[in-house]
Each structure stands twice: as C-alpha cells, then as structure tokens.
Amino acid sequence: MNQFTFYANKPSQNYNKIDIWLLGSVLLLWGLGIFTLYICSQNFAMRAFGDPIYFVKRQLLCSAVGFVLFAGFMFTDMKYIRNFVGIIVIVTFILCLLTFIPGISITKNGARRWIRMPGNFTFQPSELVKFALVLFLANYFDKQDKLLDPEGKTVFPCVIIFILFAGVVFAQKDFSSGVFILLIGILLFFVSGAKLVWIFPFALLAIPAAFLMITLNPYRLQRLIGWISPDEFGSTINYQSLNAKRAISAGGVWGSGIGSGLSKINSIPEVQADYIFAGWAEAMGYIGVVLYFVLLIFFAYRGYKAAFENPDKFSALSTFGCVSAIVIQSVVNTMVVCGLLPTTGINLPFFSLGGTSIIVTLAMCGFIVNASRCEKIDEKIVESDDINIESLSYL
C-alpha cells in the first residue's frame, strides 16, 4: 500500500480549539434547511395533516437527536471513536438486514429501505452506511499503512466489507444509494494510496451489473428515458422534473418571496423531499441559488482544510470521506432538480425532509468539526528536545 501523501510529514498536533467558521457553516446550512422546509411544505402539511408546520416539527425532533450525536462526535477523543468503529459497522449491517424482516421493515414501491420506529417514525439504514463505511475504510487503511511488513499488507478484507454493504443496499432496491456508496468507497480507495488493482475488477463488474439493474427494472428505465427526452412525458415520468424547472424559472433573479407567491412548488409532489431545492430557488431566485452554493463551497473548503492539515491518517481520511459524502450528495441532488442528471432519489443534505438523513448528516458534521480541533504545532517547536510529543493530548 502506498503512503498517503496528502497527509505525509505533518508536524505533531494539539487539540484545543474548534474551527468556528466550519461550525458556523454547518449551523447556517441546517438553519436554511429548516427555513426552506417550512416555506415549501406548509401548504401540503396543512392539507394532509391540518398543521402547516407538521413536517418542520418532525425535522426539528430528528435534528435534536442529530445534535446530540453532533456534540458526541465533536467532543469525543478520536482514539475512542476509533475504538467503536467495529461496533458501528456491525450495528449498521444488522440494521440493514432488519429491512428484510416483515413486520419490522416497511415496503414502499417494492423497496425495503426503512425500519419501523416508535411515533410513526422510520429509520433508513442505508443513510448510516455512508458514515459507517467511511469510518471503517479510514480505520483499515490507516492500520495497513502502519504495517512494517509489505507482504502483510492487503485490502482484500476491506474490499469484501465494501462490496457486502453495497450489495445489501442494492438488495433493498435502493439503487441510487448503492451507487453513491460505491462512489464514496472508490474515492477513499483512491485518496488512501491503496493499490487500485484491488478495486478495478469490481468496478468493471459493476458496469454491466448497473446496466442490467437499470434495463431490467421498468421504473429505472423510464427515468432514464425521461431524462433523455426532458420535454416529453410531462404528465408521467417527467412531471416532477418539469414542474421543478418551472419553479426555478419563476424565481427569477430575486425570487418570489416566502409568502403566497410560491405557486409553482405546490404542483411538485412531495416537494419537501428530493425536490426541495426547487422551492428554495423559487423563493430566493438566482441570488439564493448562488448563496447556497457559496455556503456549500465554504463548508467544503473548511472541511477539506481540516482533513488536509490533520496529521492522523484515520482522522484525515474519515473527515475527507464525510465532507465528500455531504458535498457530492448535495451537488448530485441539485443537478437532478435542474435536469442535468436523471432522477436518482438522492435527497439534499440539511434541506430535504428525512429523519435518518438529518441525524446522520449532523453526526458526520460533528466528526468533521472534531477533526478541525487539530492544530498544527510549529515545526521548530516539534524539533525541540524540550517537548515530549507523546504527552500532547486533548486539552
């Protein structure tokens, strides 16, 4: 396994302060998401449940759980988090298997992706897989990198776990999440310095497998056809996409405002889910769209900065994976809403309604903020004989 050069030759570190800018970007993204959910869902919530803030209250409740995990991951020493990686992976896999047990799982449109929870809530294990897999791969790559014997280095067990998780998600008929998990896993293989010869055979097998999964499933094939012919099938497979484009156009430069002027989003079925970005664009216009991407880019910059400056490979790789998962998912969702990609079912982090999504997203953000607490010590200080580097720890 090659040395992970992105983080090589870093000085020792001290953990004492949080990147306030990173923390602020996370809180601002979450706040904008709650605000957008309110303006987009109140009409439908009033009609369906007689409460205009029904969805907002559910999202706030799940956010409360998410912020508990956020704080836990933010203030827990990285070495303790690392000790629980194995438990997180095992629990995640068991939760994925529970989706196949009748009575425990919920089936929608032939897909088994959710577990029943108290209070009419559901849990989607495939969302947790993204975080668990990032932690597992980062932990494994770091351990392999520390082996002195080159003959003992192998990523075969890592590939097996990686493929096993992707396979169980595909078996849940969650094609988009399965592809996304494969993408994040391959990205971590690449940046870790692992020999890609291990992953190429699986990648080559994935191409015909993906082709078969799309062509043999009428629903996925229809989505692909609808994307190729965006102006056709306006009353069927392209209904959401076309109405989302109309909503974005209606926003203009400055937006339609947050009141009754939002007329286009009401024609988008379940706009509070995957197409919520269209609601934000109609309300805030081109200026709002630019503001969102500026904020997302700033979050990515601070997150990747925390990863690149972290001398601990596990922390660095995990942070890189978490930031990439949130950013890539956000970009993919906005491209789908704008019609640049076929409909995928990938939601918008922080914005889309989804209890599991907001909980896992906030947990990952807590980990990222924790990594930002790593402060590089000046090279000259490290070279001094007066400092015992081993004694440095969390303050």
Care to describe what's here?
The strands form two sheets. The protein has a three-stranded antiparallel beta sheet, with helices on one face. Strands 1-5 form a two-stranded antiparallel ribbon. It has 395 residues and is mainly alpha-helical. A hairpin with a 2-residue loop joins strand 2 and strand 3. It is globular. Helices cover 63% and strands 5% of the residues. The model is unreliable at 1-5, 7-13 and 377-395 (pLDDT under 50). It has 14 helices and five strands.
Question: Care to give the gist of this entry?
Answer:
By secondary structure, the chain is mainly alpha-helical. It has helices at residues 20-49, 54-75, 78-83, 85-98, 125-145, 156-171, 175-192, 200-215, 218-228, 239-251, 276-308, 313-337, 355-371, 379-383, and strands at 13-15, 105-108, 111-117, 121-123, 374-376. The protein contains 14 helices and 5 strands.
Q: What order do the strands of the largest sheet run in, or round the barrel if closed?
A: 2-3-4
What does the average pLDDT come to?
A: 82
How many helices does DSSP assign? 14
Distance between the termini: 34 Å
Q: Which ranges are low-confidence, i.e. pLDDT below 50, for 5 or more consecutive residues?
A: 1-5, 7-13, 377-395
Structural class based on helices, strands and sheet pairing: mainly alpha
Shape: globular
- The overall strand count is 5
> What is the H/E order?
EHHHHEEEHHHHHHHHHEH
Largest sheet: 3 strands, antiparallel
Helix content: 55-70%
Task: Determine the strand fraction and express it as a percent band.
Answer: 5-15%
Radius of gyration: 22 Å
